[in-house]
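Please describe the entry underneath.
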Amino acid sequence: MKKIIAIIAALVVSVSAFSQNYQNAIGLKIGYDVALDYKTHVSSSNALELGVNLSGMFQKNGLGLLVSGFYTWENQLGGVNGLSWYAGPGAYVGLFLGDPMAFSASINGMIGLEYKFSGAPVAISVDWTPGINLTGIAFSWHGGGIGVKYTF
């Protein structure tokens, strides 16, 4: 029993020992949406990511203005310094400015990879944010993108 407790304690310490290389970041994410993102770490392995998104810029059915929020868990990936994976729940809410104008809300998940460059205040990321659209009750596979952030 003592060995099991010791193993569990070692796993908890190793996961919590992961520390991000920055506290806050602001940047641009391009994918299905174009988003201005702000990320802040609430602990050594948890972050809150907020965004203002222009959605459907390349679609004919109207432009959407959405806000997003995600809570993610982060862990270092494969012992590579600066490389981490993250995943967590979130949501989008906003308006599509087409004809007719439409309200949109969805519950989403986020999964991705991030690399923080050593010695530079820059991080790059790639993620996917599939979800359930609550206004049309449909699965949405698109979302996420490639991001560049200034870290501080």
